[in-house]
């Protein structure tokens, strides 16, 4: 019961008053159908007693017909009434189906949109620990399963309302008989409980297995080239195939229980009614007409009761998905990033790190960083791998939050800034570049309209990134389609494309995390020349392995074990820092 309510409140969150409308329309359908059925009682009497029989009803139905509907119960009148009620029921039933479909679509899109919003504002710190397969599966397969869950829930809910209506009407007609049947129904429900529990269990398993399947599939696609080259794709394929088998078995088990329940339905209904009739006739004699009426109503009630259960079991079969969706949304909500409301209007003076520390899961990787970066300065970060350079850059873009101290932009704490206003002015190129499965033009301009102005901007950007000649040699030029994550480009080409995208963006702040490390010396030098040209017109923070590329930086920061060791110009450091001198010597500078 508690669970049923929990599911209800979950759907209610998205559908609100619409659930009540569903409820009332179902009630309406039940009432119309019940009255239509009840009219068979006077009909039966008319048929057995002939039209001359006493019309003033001694049974509740005839009474209802005469005093409430004001209709004289002749054969033609009663047949007419039956027809009218069943036609009205038909209309109500159409309405019921219509709103179900409508609300279902509404629910589905609300769910999808809210998930997208939640993922958008999900903090990076949490994302790195998230299960990618789960995210993927929840967004696709699970959303449609939750939608199916809603359909079953609706149906079982609607049938439940019908059961209620029929039982109440049967009680009015013949309390004793109804009581026996209802008692039988409750008993059966109790017996079926075990089957429901099994279904729910398998459903949960199915969802989690689906997550891992998706996870493996994503990796199979992402690492396709590597797996293929090393022959590991066979082993990986076997893992995938095993999962397919596991999924098949789980689905089969749920299906078996469903079929079992469906098969048991009719015999059980007939058994209960047979027992009730036997008791009624043998031990309590009563008005045959009323018994037949409540028999009709109860047969219907029981059939719908079983259908309610059947739908409920289908529902339980996908309830694992519903739970997953609930937890998933909750987790995303809990991991929502803090967002200030001050708009970033562009860097005016300084970015300052004020005693900033940062830790990943309790492990501190940056300690007490104090540093000022002035507007339009070029700052280079150097240091061994693992010293915290990438983490430092993450703190500037607001991707990561300091665990101690604060990052200030023109005196405003980053936490007070609206992050999207900040990020729209930040360019970021890292070692792992992202190439979208689209044309070169769209990759560089991020789907900008192809106006002559944008085209000019695009051309400047690709020239500065030293990828213009490569593009011009392609037959389709900027309309060339790039494969999945740029699989048909070389590493250096991808890198240059990523740089072109950031240059097109016309940013305030350019963050380059080993952006040119994958390039050959010559290409790196060309891009470097172009970046040198940008120097002084925007703030650049660059992490580079090859120290030759940062000779002209205004400031070089040496990081070691999460601490700043030295800050100075290339010349300064060559004079001051033995360590820096050694580093340059190692690179033959
Ligand atoms: P660098 O860029 O200088 O090579 P990073 O800033 O990437 O170094 O990493 C600094 C330290 O933080 C390393 O010891 C690394 O293992 C750790 N680290 C990086 N990312 C994570 C993460 N998501 N979770 C836990 N530790 C991390
Ligand atoms: Mg790094």
UniProtKB/TrEMBL annotation:
Membrane-spanning residues: 20-44, 64-86, 152-173
Keyword annotations: ATP-binding, Membrane, Nucleotide-binding, Transmembrane, Transmembrane helix
Cell inner membrane keyword on record: no
Domain ABC transporter: 351-586
Cellular compartments annotated: Cell membrane
Principal subcellular localisation of the protein: membrane
Record's bilayer topology term: Multi-pass membrane protein
Keyword Nucleotide-binding: yes
Domain ABC transmembrane type-1 as annotated: residue spans: 20-317
GO MF annotations, alphabetized: ATP binding
Domain of life, per lineage: Bacteria
Pfam entry (one): ABC_membrane
Name listed for the protein in its UniProt record: ABC transporter ATP-binding protein
């Amino acid at each position: 019961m508690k669970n049923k309510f929990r599911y209800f409140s979950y759907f209610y969150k998205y559908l609100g008053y619409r659930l009540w409308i569903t409820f009332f329309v179902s009630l309406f359908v039940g009432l119309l159908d019940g009255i239509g059925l009840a009219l068979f009682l006077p009909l039966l009497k008319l048929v057995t007693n002939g039209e001359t029989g006493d019309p003033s009803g001694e049974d509740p139905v005839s009474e209802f017909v005469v005093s409430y509907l004001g209709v004289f119960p002749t054969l033609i009148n009663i047949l007419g009434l039956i027809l009218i009620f069943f036609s009205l029921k038909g209309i109500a039933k159409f309405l019921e189906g219509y709103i179900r479909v409508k609300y279902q679509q509404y629910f589905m899109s609300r769910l999808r949109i809210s998930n997208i919003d939640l993922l958008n504002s999900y903090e990076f710190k949490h994302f790195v620990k998230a299960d990618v397969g789960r995210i993927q599966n929840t967004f696709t397969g699970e959303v449609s399963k939750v939608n199916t869950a809603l359909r079953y829930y609706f149906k079982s809910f609607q049938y439940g309302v019908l059961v209620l209506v029929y039982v109440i009407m049967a009680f009015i007609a013949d309390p004793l008989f109804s009581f026996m049947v209802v008692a039988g129904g409750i008993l059966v429900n109790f017996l079926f409980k075990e089957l429901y529990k099994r279904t729910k269990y398998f459903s949960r398993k199915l969802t989690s297995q689906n997550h891992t399947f998706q996870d493996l599939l994503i990796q199979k696609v992402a690492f396709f080239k590597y797996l293929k080259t090393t022959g590991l794709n066979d082993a990986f394929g076997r893992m995938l195939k095993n999962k397919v088998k596991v999924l098949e078995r789980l689905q089969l088990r749920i299906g078996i229980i469903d079929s079992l329940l469906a098969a048991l339905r009719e015999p059980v209904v007939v058994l209960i009614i047979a027992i009730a009739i036997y008791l009624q006739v043998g031990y309590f004699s009563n008005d045959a007409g009323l018994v037949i009426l409540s028999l009709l109503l109860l047969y219907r009630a029981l059939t719908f009761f079983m259908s309610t259960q059947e739908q409920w079991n289908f529902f339980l079969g996908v309830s694992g998905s519903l739970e997953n969706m609930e937890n998933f949304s909750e987790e995303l909500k809990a991991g929502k990033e803090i967002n200030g409301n001050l708009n970033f209007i562009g860097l005016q003076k300084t970015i300052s790190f004020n005693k900033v520390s940062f830790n990943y899961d309790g492990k501190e990787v940056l300690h007490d960083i104090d540093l000022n970066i002035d507007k339009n300065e070029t700052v280079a970060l150097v240091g061994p791998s693992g010293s915290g350079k990438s983490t430092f850059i993450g703190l500037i873009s607001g991707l990561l939050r300091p665990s101690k101290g604060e990052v200030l932009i023109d005196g405003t704490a980053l936490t007070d800034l609206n992050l999207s206003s900040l990020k729209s002015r930040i360019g970021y190129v890292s070692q792992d570049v992202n190439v979208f499965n689209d044309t070169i033009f769209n990759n560089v301009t991020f789907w900008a309209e192809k106006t002559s102005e944008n085209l000019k901007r695009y051309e400047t950007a690709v020239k500065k990134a030293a990828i213009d000649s490569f593009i011009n040699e392609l037959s389709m030029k900027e309309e060339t389609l790039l494969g999945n994550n740029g699989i048909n480009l070389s590493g250096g080409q991808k890198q240059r494309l990523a740089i072109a995208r950031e240059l097109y963006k016309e940013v305030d702040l350019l963050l380059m995390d080993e952006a040119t490390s994958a390039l050959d010396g010559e290409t790196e030098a060309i891009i470097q020349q172009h970046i040198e040209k940008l120097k002084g017109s925007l703030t650049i923070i660059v992490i580079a392995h090859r120290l030759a590329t940062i000779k002209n930086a205004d400031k070089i920061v040496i990081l070691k074990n999460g601490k700043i060791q030295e800050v100075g110009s290339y010349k300064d450091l060559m004079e001051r820092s033995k360590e820096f001198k050694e580093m340059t010597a190692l690179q033959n500078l």
